[in-house]
Write a structure and sequence with these properties.
CATH topology of the largest domain: Rossmann fold
CATH architecture of the largest domain: 3-Layer(aba) Sandwich
Structural class: alpha/beta
Bound molecules: the ligand CSCCC(=O)C(=O)COP(=O)(O)O, magnesium ion
Shape: globular
Distance between the termini: 20 Å
Strand order of the largest sheet: 4-3-2-5-6-7
Largest sheet: 6 strands, parallel
Oligomer: single chain
Number of helices: 9
CATH superfamily of the largest domain: HAD superfamily/HAD-like
Length: 267
Amino acid sequence: MSNPIVRSVILDIEGTTTPISFVYDVLFPYVRQNLKSYLTQHWESDIVKNDVSMLFQQNKLDRTGGDDKFKDTPKILYDAEDISDSTTQIQSVVDNVFYQMDRDRKSTPLKQLQGHIWLQGYQQGTLKGVVFDDVPVSLEKWKQLQIPVYIFSSGSVEAQKLLFNYSDHGDLIPMLSGHFDTTIGSKLESISYTNIIDQINLKAPVKPSDFLFVTDSIHEAKAAKEVGLNVSVSIRPGNPPIQDPSLPTFNKITDFHQLFDQYKFGK
Ligand SMILES: CSCCC(=O)C(=O)COP(=O)(O)O
Ligand SMILES: [Mg+2]
């Protein structure tokens, strides 16, 4: 059978463009180390007020009938009746953020706040985004072929842009046509992929099979495949083994160069 023709590429970050170890051993510890001082320093800023207010809304939902998994979440003290000194409020936010991070939760408020904390790290040169060596060359190839490439990650759009802007292979932002995060929907829900396709401006007529999604998550792979996207599962060094029985039904790659053997990229 001939290779499917793909007109646009959508890439996951963690475990796909970027080693999982960079996220778990560098980015997440950076948040843990800097969270309290960041909040204390910027407590009165609009950015922190907005982030804390989003965390607070999520916290209220969690504590009153949201997902059962998060029922025991630490309470954020930010309500009028909770008003106490800012040190106590900040500590309640820190406890809540640590609780969510312990569970690797992909909630939009958590991801938004993390992105704001990473900003200072990238700007100060403490953080540099890591991408696998085959990523920049593949982005370059797609650019030459006029294939638009998008990112869909649980990390916030701001966090995504920082990683690619301050990457260890230079500024890769010009190679990307756009970014999507969980504000468009969960990566585990098929509807999110449909929403993304609707927002990407390809020349009509557009069908889901015009798109290729590359991810390390078999659950995300299944959600995207269900609505007709081509999917390749990324199996990078350091990724945990995938036990799911559906894995053999997917294309698999250990390096982006293999995508050019699996698909034909054309406008
Ligand atoms: C700049 S993305 C930071 C990584 C992150 O927070 C995350 O949750 C990654 O999830 P992904 O959807 O890229 O696997
Ligand atoms: Mg991933």
